[in-house]
Amino acid sequence: MRRDGETMGLTLAIVGRPNVGKSTLFNRLIGKRQALVDDQPGVTRDRRYGEGRIGPFRFRVTDTAGFEEAKGDTLEARMREQTERAVEEADLVLFLIDAREGVTSMDQHFLRWLRKQHRPIVLVANKSESKASFAGLGEAHRLGLGEPIPVSAEHGQGLDLLLDAIRDKLGDKAKRGEPEEADDDGAAFAAPGEEPEFEDTDAFDEAAAAAHDKAVEERPLQLAIVGRPNVGKSTLVNRLIGEERLLVGPEAGITRDSIAIDWEHRGRRVRLVDTAGMRRQAKVTDKVERLSVADTLNTIRFAEVVILVLDAEVMLEKQDLTVASLVLEEGRALLIAANKWDRIEDKPKALKKLHDRIEKSLTQAKGIAVVPVSGLTGQNLDRLIDAAFALHKQWNRRLPTAALNRWLRAMVDSHPAPLVGGRRLKPRYMTQIKTRPPTFAFFMNRPEKLPDDYMRYLTNGLRERFDLPGVPIRTTLRKIKNPYAEE
């Protein structure tokens, strides 16, 4: 499988100083608003990959942080390293300037460094939609990169000229961008595609269930990493994939975009997405942080399994519980990673305390698995991903109708539903109507009268009997149709 950053075709890197429109052009080329865009400079920090196209021409495109002069272990220096790696991987560099501002000293400084990297360069003059750009286009000629390509990434203007320039610069290598089978690597997650409801009249047998499970294993797992700022999400992801793919450091809130990485674990495909840290809503005042949180929420909605990363030294705070509840409300499978476990002294006591808190606070999905890990040392990371695959399988399970109804009869016989108006309420039949998450319909007389506590009794029994820990279970009550009622 193609890993993140690898391509069978062409790779183009978009580079330039801060706030020249790199992320806007990235979004335009991949055809979706994936990268965060704001007038504030420095929004992009990690390098981000997507599948770009201009007409029939296709390529891998990389969005980068604004290039700034910085050294040492500062955040800006680490951002610059991400840009340097993107240029190393690229077949061609799109060097963006702001045509309205003209050529700045920072543009010239960046270009001096870029020339030393020995990559083909196309000069792109962005924001060229008005007469205000004419002077800047004239100045751009003195950079010595040939004719600047006037484009407006925001309005989609000039992309045909950009394509001609890319083909001219690449020569025969441009043939690698000719039309071929497209994939969707540019999106954080493709929509999981909620399955249509099954027909209740069709019994789902063991053979069909086995075939369904096999089909699930052949699809890539869509896995999101979420949590509060500075709990070590990016460090954990870098350790998993074996490279410094994401910016990390002591500063809280380094990650702003949801960054997707294609990866493999024990031969199984994974689309891994690191997300921005989520603080309490009352503390979020910055516009870019609001955009980051919205991006994270969207990632959760399209994920299949969500790993909630906790700081093991702090454990389950109120915000952690809020995020966990949100994941379960969206119907996603939830797994908890207690990170920085190498710092915990009394590990059995800490683990028991965490389990007790989860069982007490997250009653809507009993049995949520907790895996103690260390992103710094790599402790238990294989175990974490194995647990994610096991949970994914449970989340996708389709259960045989016959087995469900044998279980239902035993549950009702063991603990009958209460009498209402002198008549016994009785769920008579059930079937699974959806997966992702498992959803079940119960058929009975007067379903509106069944108490909530009896429904919880059935749901908890269902989870225990069919081994569905940590998976949200949805249920619906339906009235049995009276065959003697008039149509």
Automatic annotation (TrEMBL):
Family the entry assigns: Belongs to the TRAFAC class TrmE-Era-EngA-EngB-Septin-like GTPase superfamily. EngA (Der) GTPase family.
Binding residues annotated for GTP 1, in chain numbering: 16-23, 63-67, 126-129
Residue positions binding GTP 2: 227-234, 274-278, 339-342
Species: Hypericibacter adhaerens
Protein name: GTPase Der
UniProt signal peptide: none
Functional note: GTPase that plays an essential role in the late steps of ribosome biogenesis.
Gene for this chain: der
Ranges for region Disordered: 174-197
